[in-house]
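worker-03 picked up job from queue 'complexes'. Input manifest follows; two sequence lines, order preserved.
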Amino acid sequence: MKVTVLRLGHRHARDKRISTHVGLTARAFGASELVFDVKDTHVVDSIERITKDWGGCFTVSYTPNWRKYVSDFNGERIHLTMYGLNVNDVMKKVDSKKDKLVIIGGQKVPSEIYKMVDFNIAIGNQPHSEVAALAVFLDRLQAGKELGGKFHGKKNIIPQAHGKKVVEDKINRGINNLTGK
Amino acid sequence: MKVTVLRLGHRHARDKRISTHVGLTARAFGASELVFDVKDTHVVDSIERITKDWGGCFTVSYTPNWRKYVSDFNGERIHLTMYGLNVNDVMKKVDSKKDKLVIIGGQKVPSEIYKMVDFNIAIGNQPHSEVAALAVFLDRLQAGKELGGKFHGKKNIIPQAHGKKVVEDKINRGINNLTGK
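worker-03 finished. Artifact:
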């Protein structure tokens, strides 16, 4: 199952950090690709810089026509919205084998999207955050396995009970450097 | 089990929307209280406006001394950090009956926090978002039950497969008004 995230309605003035968090969350929770319908090179650069250091195969792209992108998608289309069916009730109907397009908007999304998708799913029917919704949906979809994935980056964390430890693989120098504090 | 979220290191210029998302996520995922170590009335107002309309018992407050606040907390102290032990490995050790203080920082948190808590838990050992980390931790902690909670607000959503429906309880006029589109 390949997961693509479509972020609708990014606003340059307000959404830079939220959209960056959306991208980093998509990557860390096992999605392969993030697609925007609005170009913002600052956000793309921030996400790609993390991928360069921390690894994994994650791409960020742009579509000039999100309606066509959604229509043409070959797999299940899922819109995360607080108005949808509660994830606790509907998750069992989602096919964990088919490729997924997970669509998240900001405060306003075009109303036609509700009819274009296979599922409108609410990560609880309360207002909160598209970042939170995306994370919990991807966690439920993959039953937590995504959080054990290997990214094989230049930087890798060695989990610690009470501290920080990062292994930096300095490829150009051909050495491993263990740093911690 | 009562859950309090402590948000460390909010920055006025950069973090208004992220901290607002933290607050709304804490509320929607069953926490009772959000505590900041930095005052920002704009963020507090945004969160309280949502609580006023959508219900629930959720408070936002400020502590001038987060070290004392953490030390004095009566319950389990959990710091969410990508450097910690992976949630998939450590969650079984967390006591689902004791009150919880869930601590989230921004990019930089004081290093002493790692020693002050009972658990440093990583929602995956990759960089992503404190909003995502908080949501997934609270979802795992409460086994998803928090997303079925009732908030008894002025506004309540009637979950829909393909549309929006909100019941507005207009208390002052003593009527229920069903709106949808």
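worker-03 released lock.
The CA atoms of residues 82 and 125 of chain A lie 5 Å apart.
Chain A touches chain B through 59 residues (CB under 8 Å).
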